[in-house]
Records
---
Amino acid sequence: MINKTFIIIISICLIQLFSDNSFTVEPEEVLKNQKQELRARNISKNIRCMICQNQSIDESSASLAKDLRILIRNKIKEGNSNEEIYKFLTDRYGDFILLKPPIKLSTLALWVLPFVFLLIGIFVVFWHNKKSKKF
Amino acid sequence: MKKKLLIIPSILFLSILLTFFYLLIIERDPSAIPSNLLDKNIPKFETESLLRKERFISSKEFGNEIILVNFFATWCLPCRDEHIYIKRFSNEKGIRVIGINYKDSSDNAVEWLKNLGNPYSDVPIDKNGRIAIDWGVYGIPETFIVNSKGIIKYRHVGAITKKIYKKINLLIKEIE
């Protein structure tokens, strides 16, 4: 009995984990042109909701997130490129509005340090192994 | 050899502990996001004014003196809390304050200013929040110090408290 419930709970969790259906775009926001709408959705997924901070504006129902979703769609309709839209947003809100920090000189440590630590870790393990073999 | 090996991790651990302790006791708000507009010109805008018949044109208003720009709304409770300090800026310190009315009902805003007192030299209306986006605003109330050249020197997110009031006064003196 417990096993069955457990399996059901786990499968629900897994379905949630792998389904990509959580978005809050309201019907009146959706663009008629499907290609443009897809572009808007993809940009929205990379833009941080500044109020909730760990959600993208694609998932957030905060009013600023909605304003930005509409703004992005208007910019697409006006013929702006993705880069222009990202630049418009980062000019105002900084790199923080991007969910993935860009690779720059100031963020280099952020991107490189994990690999440096991994190398140090590998080195320490080998060093220890070598030493314990001696004894 | 074993003793030496123990000393290094303990020093490491202690230094991490000290760093965290230091970060705990210094005054900082980890959720505060620095404004990307610092040391940049104010975003230009033109809109209706709540108090006057003529339109508010930013290029006519900024660039002569230090101005505080305060984004507020009647539906925002912290705005009511900080109102007393906004009044002190304009009444006691003689600083010009422009209040941008964010996504609000104009009738409510007029009533609100009548009841609580109006510290603003002008109140441009931001009906759909578009001006706020240009200023990089994400949670009102937000307050900016703009210097006499029309350049943004400081941004505070959230209500102005006694501490922030003092800090802004100090900063204004420095900028002058």
---
Amino acid sequence: MKTFFEKVWQDHVITSLGDADLLQVDRLVLHELSGSQAVRALAEANRKPMAKEQVFTVIEHLISTRPGRGPTESASKSGPIMIETTRRASIDWGFHFIDYNDPRQGIAHVVAPELGIAFPGATLVCCDSHTSTVGGVGALAWGIGASEAEHVLATQTLAQSRPKTMRVNFDGKLQPGVYAKDMILALIGQVGAQGGIGYAVEYAGEAVRALPIEGRLTLCNMAIEFQAKYGFVPPDAVTLEYLRGREFSPKGEIWDAAAAYWLSLATDPGATFDLEVHVDCNTLAPQVTWGTSPQQVTSIEGSVPRPGEAADEKALGYMRLEAGTPLAGLKVDVAYIGSCTNARLSDLRAAADVLRGRKVAPGVMAICVPGSTPVKAAAEAEGLDRVFIDAGFEWHESACGFCGHIGDNRFADLRVVSTTNRNFEGRQGPKTRTHLASPATVAASAVAGCIADARSMTLSPALPQGGGSHTSPRGSA
Amino acid sequence: MEAFIRVTGIAAPLVRINIDTDQIIPTLFLGGTDAKGYGAHLFHGWRFLPDGRPNPEFVLNQPPFDRAQVLLADRNFGCGSSRERAPKALREFGFRAILAPSYGGIFFNNCYRNGIVPVELPIEAVREIEAEVDANPSGQVTVDLESQRVTSPSGESYSFTAPTTLRDMLLAGVDEIELTLGRQSEIEQFREKDRARRPWAYL
Ligand code: SF4
């Protein structure tokens, strides 16, 4: 009796090194921020990639999101050189290369499942801590450093010590208006920002099985926010349905063999984990962070808690918040929908459901950066771009955008409600105060001008548009 | 990689939880494809005032901690982004070892590849060393990777365990890629068998 993790790990052990194993790496994904360092180091050491057909590069981290952007346009001063270095090396070495203007372009963790680069039971690594996102299609994926990436380029292997296993059981059913983002934020609040150190985490339970792939990707995206390097949902029929026919998915007879094999990777009944955690989804409400660590989170019906430890006090100082302040009603300056966490089609649809027929509150800067160019195209085909633009949102090209601060100071000193995954000090700009939430919550907050519960807008009959009021999402314009 | 056997030096206290790699070096300073040039921006948001002058309140701006080689921290140090410039910035500043109860996993591995030992010590031990350093800032702390021991300025000794594979690599200062390339035939055999079993993994 084995867990999914044990089966996949075992499948990739070339040899044991004692307390670590040398693992075969099925997919290496590079982007211009850290990939550029790895390719340069490899070239300087006079080495060559060992398996170029297993390497994929996407231009997505530093490239501008401005409609009509140029090939090296970036808010980062060193963006152009990093983009160009990565582009040159990827073309010269013959990697699968997805450039800024490729219709398949987008944030690497969004693109990898969309194209079938990630697949169940694959070992996939990328110089990026949110690589575990693609655990949502049943890949064993984790973030690595640039030196490790150089090692993978040269050998298509990586030495890793074997983590312990944790199963997180999301029990029960989500209520309407509650999303995967709320599940993962609640989990991090429960186990703490370091709760996953040393663990590979399997997400299980009724609520996970009921999630479409996009929601599973959101869950796995934030594994690193409680310091689990690996997060995954073992493959099932939903996974196969999602992957069938994608560009790099196997075809024909190989697909049949792969599909059978993938299903056999599921955790055996009775297999045991080093740790089991339970989260009750029946009573779960939308979540919003109030501090500078994702563990500093509460329900949208809650208030900023009294500081429990020194770090909480420091966070409240940075966030300019006082204990006892209700989260709902807190005035925001920016509403941001984007990132590898929550900018897939279903996220945009959830936000559009709130925005349809409503307007962003005066004075609020509202921005949407789709997770990939295919997501953007699909959204435009459904007319979602019109919904966003008519409501007062900016509609951008796909890239990492404003998730991390690379040089653009638009969010400096502002309070942002954001669908991203990190609320660290300065993450989105100097003195920027970030509140993490789901796309529905961000859209509702954009309309209300303050943190607002989307359920009061979408679950009751259509109300006149909000705007202006900072105390109630139903405030009249 | 740069070898590490033992280091004796000043220890700077920054005993907070969840210090993430965005704080160690903000994204804004990740520029360039170079392996160097990050030490100047270590802890930028805390170390410098908005006008660019050093913040006198910040520990690493206060002698003798501006020459520290050991950093004292609390749990989950180096969480967050995978940026390898975080250990690079620490190393360029002069750090060779960190003492903390736990680390972000990606950061932990990155440290070894940049000549830094992330020592896992219980918070009580870190606090005891911090108290000694508070009383005597120029007291010397020794981190010995060979014997897996930390010695405080007063001579108090704490043992720790480092992962064997990484420890051996760092003690010898080996080139990890060279080492793995020495297993080329083993790797190729594996790939051949695996290709027959999982053809979809090989494009
Ligand atoms: S969207 Fe944000 S979190 Fe995701 S890969 Fe890009 S910068 Fe990192």
---
Amino acid sequence: MKLDTLIKFQNMDRRWIFLGMGIAILLPLLFPITLSFNIDERVQSLYDSVEEVPAGSTVFISADFDPASRPELEPFFRANLHHLLRKDVKFVAATLWPSSPPLVMPIFEEITAEYGKEYGKDWCFLGFKDGKELAIKAIGENIPETFPTDIKGNKIADLAVARSFKQAKDFAMIINVSAGFPGTREYVLQIQGQYDLKIASATTAVSGPDYIPFYKAGQLTGLSAGMPGSAQYEQLVFPDGPREGERLMATQAVNVLNVGHLFIIVLILLGNIAFFVTRRVEEAAP
Amino acid sequence: MRSTIPLVLTFLVGIFMVGEYFIPHWRYHQWTAVLLEWGLILAAAAFLLGLFNLVQVNLPKVMNKEEDWGYKLVMLVSLVGTLVVGFMGNTDRLSDGQAYKWLFDFVFVPLNATMFALLAFYIASAAFRAFRARNLEATVLLVAAIIVMIARVPMGEDLPLIGEKLPQFMNWIMDVPNIAARRAIFIGAALGAVATGLRVILGIERSHLGAD
Amino acid sequence: MSGIELVGAWVSIFLTVCVLSFLYDDNPVYKLAEHVFLGVSIGYGVIEIYFGVFKPNLLDKLMNDELGMLQRSLSIVPLILIIMLFSKVVPKYSWLARIPIAFIVAAYAGVKLTGELNANLMTQVAQSIPNLAEVWEKHGFWDWSADGAGVFSSLFLVLGLAACLLHFYFSAPQNKAMQQISRFGVLTLMLSFGASFGYTVMGRISLAIGRAQEMLGLDRSAEQVAQIHPRTASLICILLVVGYLVAWRRKQGDDYTPGN
């Protein structure tokens, strides 16, 4: 192969790569292939820890994600709500991200309505609180002081599901759906050790490797990372497949990753082959 | 005086917050809850200060028709529009049919999500152009990345010969070298954070107070 | 779906295509979308901060007659601190802002100190010291069924951790033996960063998949797809934006230099 061709190839306009990436994402969506997958031990552990929560008890959900992380985390979030509600577990939810309330409130309302759950009695959403680590510390310390009212303006003392819980340790467990900062790391650092809390985390793929040490050290009872984690959790919660008229979004999307990853690997290999051949030709040249 | 009071305050508040971890007495925790609430409110106010600064910087540019003033006008109009529909909606702002909710579902969500979706394309470009196995370290990084990329997707488990062992090897990478490296980083960062925290509380670090 | 929601669905797809046009080049359509995003996102932040923090934790408490005198008085303190913080915009009184800043910085320093010490330092170090006898009994030297757990992996973890920590020790010159150990630490770091890169690729592609699912209508029910026609909408929006980009590029003529 000629040297200038190789150099041209290595320096090609990156818009061709963008086009290739676009095709690698669109094609498997238009012509889906469905491959089965195994369940990670960490996701199984997360599922089992939720299974162990007794019926009638209450968990604290911290929904800390935004529209950008929806594809990775919303499928888990939805499946988790189904998992909790069909076990007759109540929940009190809050968020540390300002763009989360408009995203999660409709999902809460949609799924709780399916199970006939009543707001204030079976679930409530306390809304957003700024302050990052301080907010988490405050949740560990004193929830009624931190959230005097819920997102609808109701006093927390008037909410049957929330009024008897003063601190994070009073809940059966904490489920943190976390897209970044503030999120799981801050929950673990600030209150998990101090109050010996049971925390399970669903996080984006980018943060997954960071939280594995927390899981291995027992600071997290389970960990779901990225879209594959959400897909695996969907499989555990819906072992018979999606309900009629619905889709399992992560399960559908995870197979697209096959082609996407393959494309990236091919790019890396081609880039390296071109690099080494160029270097050899240049070294051999007089 | 202008430096002394903030330094004394830093010391007292810092020590008080450190004490929260060690002192279990309920009266002490009543007061830490109060301080934490003040901290939340101040953190929120700092965001508002940023908003004020944004308007302070961009409004004169629009008024004087400086470069890109049209875009800045669009930004300010979007900001004011969102504030208006948000305050008008009040506690019902997240209900169906509200303009605030419409703006979130059909303007904020696609813009926010697509901004981050662009990264998929740039990571492909970066992988092609920059990811070179120039030495042993880079080769190890590259091989680990490829193993994880193949093993993390359903296709990886179906590969002939290596399909069974590949996810196990990937899990080994995540459970052993990854944890070793992350723990080293966490320990180093923790020591740094403790040192910096102590420096701030003891008044050795004063950069947050600005110049005298 | 109502008419306004239908319009919204098309606006959503149009804005998606506007942002994606950045892949071609930084262009006016993208800039417009970017500035709308900036304005709207800051607006959302302010609204949620007001309803999430200021109203319940400050204003309602100040105006609540049911609360005791002490509690209401305590609520005045953050109000005074906020006023002092905003004095930053007036150069003559900007020094007053040091007090609320000192408060905030000290509060964060205090909570971070104990949090990092406990969760990142002590717990992680404690978990890094394996009980080799127990590991040998449970997994032997190497156990494939437990993803490679065993004495080898436990020793690798401890030695890898120590080697990485030694690599981070920059304040003293390292002799030859230390350099070799440091190299092992670097290789351990590279394995970890390679795994991180793999996960990052997965995460980024997932975000793009989400957008593609919306543009193809795969995230909606059949009924909604029949009303919105997302694929038609996507095609029309792409044609509109491409048409604009062609016209824009022609207008630039010889002056055009690709920004990408």
---
Amino acid sequence: MARSRADIRRRAARAYELGRAAAALRQAAPFALLLVGVPLVTGSGSGAIGAALAAAAAVTMWLGGVVGRAARVGLLAGLAPLLAPIAVGGIGHRCSGCGPAAAMPLCIAMCVGAGAVAGALLGLLAARESRRLTFAAIALGFAGTAGALGCVFAGASGLFGMAIGLTLGGLAPLAAAAARGR
Amino acid sequence: MDLRRDEVNALLARLADGDRAAITPAFEMLWPVVRRFCRRALASDADGDDAAQEALVKLFGRMASFDPARDGLAWALAIASWECRTVRRRAGRRREAVLDETALVSDGDGETQLAARELAAAARAALAELDPRDAATVLAALSDDPAARPPGVAPATFRKRLERALGRLRGILRSHGAF
């Protein structure tokens, strides 16, 4: 079984890629379940977008580096607005007819709040990165898309509210980090 | 050595993060260390090289789960140590197969066959206690295959090694009451 050093290195490199691919699939699998499952459960019917997002996340996690970290954090942060419709359903609120004209647009408030939580998480973690703008942009993309799959139930107002929350929540920690000169 | 440890840790952390540019330097840094470790652990250059290859392939395969807070060199040697154990076990199974074959080829009635099997079992137990190099020498002498003999060892040297190994084997068998 004598192999040259170069052969062994090639085998090791192949094992490395396979190992990373397996790890990426393992990490992306729970997100895939939620990204496909939540839209189906809430009836927004955008499971295909969720599946595409999960596939994109698996690819970025396999690539690794700032891109992989940002995708993971983005999806994690995006869980807040993604699960917002299930949360409001859990307290017995029905979102049909819940819009700006309603007396208490709870769904929109939930989307703004969940977006702000997601944004704050992204901003805090992006502030620790050396390539924070790249990280923030990629994470924002993943969090925004995942969140939109949840907040789409509240219509355009819900999506707009989530985007506002995400941007403001994310900007605060990034601005604080910039002010500290980091 | 501390500096080397830091370098290994830094390279493994880069690999765990997905930096492919660290594959070659990490391999070049780990290969001699892991190979030396396996050769010593198995007391055989050929088995050591096989174990080191498998260990490095497994190590790179598990790189995505490497925790940069851990000591990278210790992690690499733990995987190598596990691989050496696997190679040793495999060699043990090969040894058993050779002894079983030896027991089965002896012609004779049922009683003779049983005695041969009991002898093979006693020899297996004694070989397990023997130093791996001595065990390999005894098995090479038992085998009909000339390739089983260690390469590059002169016949006279091999005979001397075999004599010493058989002496130790006899000592072990005596302590078990076999003689």
